[in-house]
Amino acid sequence: MRPTLLLVLAVLASLPQSGSLREAVKLGRTQDDALYESFNRSYDIPGSGGVERVEIITEFRRAVLVVRERMDQGDFVFGPDDLAKAMVPFKGQVTLIAQVRLHPQNTFAREPPYDLYVSTGPKTPPIAPKALKRSPVYLSGVPVPGTPVVGVRLEASLPRAEIERALSPFLVITDDKAEILWQGRLDLSRYR
């Protein structure tokens, strides 16, 4: 019993402070749609070229999103303690999501092998995700036989501490030929 209690205490101590959890619950429950949308838009980075946008999901933002999802499901008693437990798998992680538009005359039958990583500087190795989720984007929104793939959604989680330690972190998105499609400075100090 004692080792279990110590493990629970260690996990709880490593989570965001209870004040942050209360703030996330409050923001996730807000009925002010303009405030909620403004909060979420502040985590978007505009893309260029074929990259439409890049979205950043920090621990705090994920906490707000979790609360909002629970509210949408009718769970109005979901509080800071519940949120602390739900956030354990995301400890120390930042999720990066990129929406990439493909050339209209592409011949891809499924999502292309585009990639995403964080360049750390000229003399240091990049930070690559352990898992990269690639999802096709269809014109109709759903995969229908014969419907062309018009884009790809890339999603990866990386350790926030590694990105913050990097001398010059840049998010880099490459195409199926490993050519850089887009890169942008990744300054996580701007995000909670």
Description:
There is one protein chain. Helix content is about 30%, strand content about 30%. It is α+β, with helices and mostly antiparallel strands and about 190 residues long. The chain has one domain (about 1-190): Immunoglobulin-like, CATH 2.60.40. The strands form two sheets. It has a five-stranded antiparallel sheet. A three-stranded antiparallel sheet has the order 4-7-8, with no helix packed on it. A hairpin with a 5-residue loop joins strand 7 and strand 8 (about 180-185).
Residue share in β-strands: 25-35%
Mean pLDDT score: 88
Element string (H = helix, E = strand) = HHHEEHHEEEEHEE
Q: What topology, given as strand order, has the largest sheet?
A: 1-2-3-6-5
The CATH architecture term is Sandwich
CATH class: Mainly Beta
The major sheet is characterized as:
5 strands, antiparallel
Distance between the termini: 35 Å
Number of helices: 6
- Could you tell me the radius of gyration in angstroms? 19 Å
What number of structural domains do the residues give? Answer: 1
Helix content: 25-40%
Task: Tell how many strands the DSSP assignment holds.
Answer: 8
Uncertain parts:
3-16
How does the overall form come out from the CA principal axes?
globular
**SS content category:** alpha+beta
What is CATH's topology name?
Immunoglobulin-like
Task: Identify the CATH homologous superfamily.
Answer: Immunoglobulins
